[in-house]
């Protein structure tokens, strides 16, 4: 079906809706389930929706949550949306921050400066072309992952205390009753 319904090949930012072709299977229709995510203007969920629609999926939607929609005039400006699709809003912020405070710029965008080309639009065009060429997602390997790695929440104090209590109480169950009385004989109010 990806050959029949190519989607929007050129990124223009315009609203795009997939229409079924006569004599062919209908376009794949799906519905956005945002779950607990708030679908505010420019949210990642809304960006994923736009990407899926541009990729050829038929998803009922409105342009009200896309960047470029003016709620006062109720008009959608495709040029503004295209700028956001191509990362130009981030590039503009980077240029502004570089002019105002170069140290803050280097601190905030250090990984970007080290790993990415200066032309953000070209980078996104290459990414779009690579996705169209092979849309299969390859997950990241989890080698080197451990409970002690940074970013892993680990055991919380309450869980640790509960674990220690369970360990102690299970070891008491293994002791003969005379030893248990001896352990707790010094505890006031026991027996």
From TrEMBL:
All copies of domain Large ribosomal subunit protein uL18 C-terminal eukaryotes, residue ranges: 120-137
Subcellular location, record wording: Cytoplasm
Molecular function GO labels: 5S rRNA binding; structural constituent of ribosome
Coiled coil start-end: none
GO annotation terms (biological process): ribosomal large subunit assembly; translation
Main location: cytoplasm
Pfam families attached to this UniProt entry: Ribosomal_L18_c, Ribosomal_L5e
InterPro entries registered for this protein in UniProt: Rbsml_uL18_euk_arch, Ribosomal_uL18_C_euk
GO cellular component: a single term: cytosolic large ribosomal subunit
Keyword terms: Cytoplasm, Ribonucleoprotein, Ribosomal protein, RNA-binding, rRNA-binding
PANTHER family, sorted: LARGE RIBOSOMAL SUBUNIT PROTEIN UL18, RIBOSOMAL PROTEIN L5-RELATED
Similarity comment: family membership: Belongs to the universal ribosomal protein uL18 family.
Name of this protein: Large ribosomal subunit protein uL18 C-terminal eukaryotes domain-containing protein
Organism: Myodes glareolus (Bank vole)
